[in-house]
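Try this one yourself first.
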């Protein structure tokens, strides 16, 4: 079981939800290419709130992901797509199935 992860929440700018959804869906191949990323989810919480939840087996893999292509691409487009900077929180996984 993976023991650590990230929970990234973000709010789309008005009129940018479709573009943010396209961006998130398009990031899947990047996540799949990361050997240390065990699982990666992009989800919609409500009409303008989205999240990424991903898991890792160790801290080096989590840090590699944080410094990787998805994070760089998100930060490059944050001003265009997001109403405010994303909230990026490291999490400890307590239980999983």
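Now uncover the answer:
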């Amino acid at each position: 079981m993976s023991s650590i992860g990230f929970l990234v929440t973000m709010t789309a700018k008005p009129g940018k939800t479709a573009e943010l959804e396209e961006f998130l869906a398009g990031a899947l191949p990047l996540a799949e290419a990361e050997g240390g990323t065990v699982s990666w989810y992009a989800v919609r919480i409500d009409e303008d709130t989205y999240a990424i939840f991903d898991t890792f087996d160790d801290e080096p893999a989590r840090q590699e992901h944080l410094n990787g292509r998805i994070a760089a691409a998100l930060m490059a487009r944050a001003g265009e797509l997001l109403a405010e900077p994303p909230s990026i929180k490291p999490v400890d996984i307590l239980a999983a199935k």
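Discussion: Residues 4-92 form a domain with the Alpha-Beta Plaits fold (CATH 3.30.70.100). Residues 23 and 74 are 8 Å apart (CA to CA).
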